[in-house]
Design a protein that fits this description.
With about 375 residues, the protein is an alpha/beta fold. Helices cover about 30% and strands about 30% of the residues. The protein has two domains: about 5-215, Spore Coat Polysaccharide Biosynthesis Protein SpsA, Chain A; about 215-370, 60s Ribosomal Protein L30, Chain: A. The two termini are about 30 Å apart. The structure holds cytidine-5'-triphosphate and magnesium ion.
Amino acid sequence: MRTTAIIVAAGRGTRAGGALPKQWQDLRGAPVIAHTIRAFAGHVDDIVLVLHGDDLHRAATLGLRAVAGGDTRDASVQAGLAALAADPPDYVLIHDAARPLVSADLIARVKGALATHTGAAPALPVTDALWTGTDDLVTGTQDRAGLYRAQTPQGFHYGAILAAHAAFAGQAADDVAVARAAGLDVAIVAGDADNLKITQPDDFARAAKLMGRDMDIRTGNGFDVHRFGDGDHVMLCGVAIPHSRGLQGHSDADVGLHTITDAIYGALARGDIGQHFPPSDPQWKACESHVFLRHAVELAANMGFTITHIDCTLICEFPKIGPHADAMRARVADITGLDPDRISVKATTSERLGFTGRGEGIAAMATATLVKS
Ligand code: CTP
Ligand code: MG
């Protein structure tokens, strides 16, 4: 069954405050809506965004189809449904952009229930006692039996919810209200207490805390040595530096890039550079080392990790690294796609002691930090 997610994000987030509508505000380094989109990626066949007319220009940065919403949530949902009419999916999952913590399991539960129901939506039974009140005074109590707190995504057979919205007049609390008005059956699936809707200013901190709880933060280290031989330059962190000697090695002997590559493999617990690119294999002879680093970066992305920081120390008496350090950072940034501010390249001598001190070769060590959230 082909399923499209409609992510509604055309509201102005007045209750949440801030300089931007809540779905565009930062949550742990990315806009709220980017987290919401990521939560659906891979779990639906297609995603359409419903944005405020003023925000349509932002769609390009998200790389998804977007249509303009309306003044009410209903109108925004209708705009999303209409956008799918030319190539209708079997199911739609209608979701608030303001719920970035929706889990894959919850999405699966809603989709699963659509095999036997025209509609399905997550909800949590009310567990707190309920009161009525006026002006901070309790005026009565309310039986909570049979009451639920509704969440999204709310899933429907596409044709049925399209017709239900077309026939609906007035204001609806959500799409389940619209479906019920049209007589559709809507199954309740288990909601998730973490699937909160960012509504008030302090919900950002709550959402950030919940996200951080599942963060997988890893640190990997790398170490490498190459021996000096004949030559007129050395390759260090992707930059050719003129020198009276060259570095020996099967590839271009870039000891800096090799050690950074190994640090990333280390954080992923996926072996080392020699395992992925055996020196015995002639195809890596004279290979430029950015090929190795790009492989490690891609492996990290495929495993769901973001590289957040790289720190590399080159150990040699000569050549002097300082004048080239910024060029090296820029080159490593270019290869990895990281911001240069997240890359450190520094150097030390070994006080003329040992093989680096005697000028027999260059050693390098690196640390890489990777995060999956
Ligand atoms: N929404 C929408 N179009 C509207 C109103 C709301 O697409 N005209 C979306 C919001 O962007 C949000 C979801 O519906 O993702 C749930 O609405 P709500 O939490 O009420 O968000 P806002 O309307 O933006 O916030 P507020 O009511 O505080 O202004
Ligand atoms: Mg609203």
